[in-house]
Prior knowledge:
alpha/beta, TIM Barrel
Amino acid sequence: MRDRNDLMIGVKPQSLSLMDDGQFVASFDRAGRLYTAYRDGHTFVRGLSGIVLEKWHEEGEPWTPKRIRVLTEEEKRTFLTDLWTKVSELIAAFRRGYGCLRVFGEERAFSPEDLERWLERILAWDVHAYARDQERFLSVYKPISILPPDQYLALVLQVTEGCHWNKCTFCDFYRDRRFRIKTEDEVRRHIAAVKEFLGDSITLRRSLFLADANALILPQERLVRLLEIIHEAFPFEGGQRALEGIYSFLDAYSGMRKTVEDFAALGSWHVKRLYLGVESGHDPLLRFVNKPGTAREALEVVSRIKAAGLSVGVIILIGLGGDAFFDAHVRDTIALLNEMPLDREDILYLSPLYVHPGSDYEEKARAFGIRALTPQELKHQIQRIREGLRFASSADRPRVSLYDVREFVY
Ligand code: SF4
């Protein structure tokens, strides 16, 4: 017999969560699409692409990284079918008078009819609807290979495709596509397709991310024109529906083409933060992995971005260069980070390297007799870098955060 207090429906302006006895939680956006679920200690994240990621900790493994895996197509069908059955049962129980409703934020504006419409939308997403949605995603986007962790819920626009360099030995994010810049007409069509695809799901997306790897390589005039088009399509000011800013990746090499004034002009178009894959402060290691640009250039680009009033996300690869580069990587990365004018608006991401079997990096590391770091050594490298950081004041230090690329799903 179900207890009256087991079941709760929590409503926020952009999401609705169904909770059952602390053992099951499923959250849906305003279009009724599932985006995250929790069941018996395992978390499931569904991306717009249709991918479902499962994350959990093994008992007795407090430090080791989370276990993460992508569900196979068959597992996904089973998961979505079971989820729909469970959600239908909870909604039916709620309609019979069990459980309670909590509205966060908009209580007065939220009517019983609004709730009913939302529950009906959730029930319309059965396993077949999700399968159709997955197909539609691929007609709107090329696979979104990666985003910074604070942008996983961004609204992505692919104004460019791929990476203009595409030759770093450790990176295979864009090996499946040639770099190209979309025309203004293509961007307009892309925006229309994205809006249609997302529908009410768009309200969950609070920021806008320009993809793929280095959209900011566009000449300034062309970039500003695209930002104008984006501003015609999306609000950035006034009201709850406004997006809070525009974000993008940038690499040191292409960032050197922009002046402080260029970055400041982007700021006037609500560009808020740029994410720089610095990887290491040790130039020989950057050359070893075929990363364009130098540590000095990374410092210069970060300084220009900060001087223009924008914030940065600096990404450092933990374990890059394995045992051979361990000390030099730590030493020069600490020195570089301590020279950067980072403050509380910025984020420093420490991202463990995951070597893809058969990658150029793996082959070269083998040829040079380089051993990959163990989990304990990765942890030690993170500790050493963190301990070496010196910021002007503890109140104004950037956020330092782990960036596990395996957790990414869009
Ligand atoms: S520049 Fe960035 S996206 Fe391009 S290959 Fe290198 S790491 Fe990958």
